[in-house]
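Weekly modeling sync, notes
Attendees: S.R. (lead), two postdocs, one rotation student

Agenda item 3: backlog of single-chain predictions. S.R. asked that every request posted to the team notebook include the full sequence so nobody has to chase files. The rotation student volunteered to paste the first one in as an example of the format we agreed on. Action items at the bottom.

Example entry:
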Amino acid sequence: MSIGVVFSGGGMKGVAHIGVIKALEEFKIKPTHIAGTSAGAIVGGLYAQGIPWEEMMYFFKNTDIFSLKRYANRKPGFIDSLKFYEDLLAFFPTDCFEDLQLPLYITATDIIKGESYIFNKGELIRPLLASASFPGVFTPVKINNNYYIDGGVINDFPSGILKTTCESIIGVYVNPLSTIEITSIKHSYQVLRRAYEINLHHHAKQKFQPCNVLISPDTLSKYGTFSMKNIDQIFNIGYQWAVKELEKNAHLLLNTK
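Predicted structure, as returned to the notebook:
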């Protein structure tokens, strides 16, 4: 049976994807196709390469995102996305989609054309970096004379990519919309952030339907996009929710155990 896994964006909340991978291994579920956006593209790429979840955790814990050596010089962004190239080259020495153990599909956004683009062949690392280039923080990435930013701007949950390819789809969405009180919104930037979260969740929710199993921990809403101090907690949340959902919905993943 063909089983696809979709990993959403989410910044450091994407570490929850790694907890899900641990649970999939324990349930002896072996995906055949991977799709991802932003942080989900990075985790999805490592997963498609066959990197153990323990090494993924080490990578996320020990990669200093905001190191001074990564700051952008005369580029539109604070952090130069390409200064993570060598970090990823250690995992992807051939820098090629076709050399991965599993087919991988990742989304990025063409900042000039305003369109979503799916990468699944050829050069690998630049598309991974582009997909994870959060707008305004990381610089756009040039690929074949086009410039790309975070895939989540248009498609934060690319389940549609796997609809015609996979018999079963497991979706992992780590950007749940939190419940708030109006008293918590006191400044204009909080209104803007809330509007962004609502828009992101609204568009992603419409893409949940193809999933046979959806893992979306609502407790992740309290964690920040770039905070690295709660990595272990985020991992454990992803793992625990995955175990709960897989136990409940194992019958939807026929012939996987």
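Discussion: group reviewed the output briefly. The two ends are 11 Å apart (CA to CA).
Action items: rotation student to repeat for the remaining queue; S.R. to check formatting next week.
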